[in-house]
Amino acid sequence: xxxxxxxxxxxxxxxxxxxxxxxxxxxxxxxxxxxxxxxxxxxxxxxxxxxxxxxxxxxxxxxxxxxxxxxxxxxxxxxxxxxxxxxxxxxxxxxx
Length: 96
Ligand code: HEC
What we know:
The protein is mainly α. It has one domain: Orthogonal Bundle (Cytochrome Bc1 Complex, Chain D, domain 2). 62% of the residues lie in helices and 0% in strands. It is built from six helices and no strands. The protein has helices at residues 2-20, 24-30, 33-36, 48-54, 61-71, 82-93. Helix 2 (24-30) crosses helix 6 (82-93) and helix 5 (61-71) packs across helix 6. It is elongated, with a radius of gyration of 16 Å. The termini are far apart. The site of heme C has 22 residues, from helix 3, helix 4, helix 5 and helix 6.
């Protein structure tokens, strides 16, 4: 019985993991980033392409920017998991 429950729990968290593994493009839509950002035009915030250009060649940018969005330091605080934020920033960086 215990083993069955454990197996179910493991299967459950695995399924939950899959649900959270969204692509960056999906996160950017789902989390409302596009309310303030556009791909190639300045809106409330800078165009994602400009952000990508600004951080081009900065290997730490993805982690730093994900952290910035998460903490809400100098940016609107975004409620999303670390994985979602990393995916979203990865998407932003891929728009250059
Ligand atoms: C309420 C409006 C708003 C929302 C929602 C928003 N942003 Fe922003 N964003 C801004 C503004 C304004 C700036 C420019 C100021 C700054 O650099 O923080 C910005 C800047 C940025 C930057 C550049 C930061 C830097 O240090 O150069 C990135 C990357 C970014 N946003 C990503 C996102 C992502 C990803 C989301 C969704 C998860 C998002 N933003 C949602 C308004 C918003």
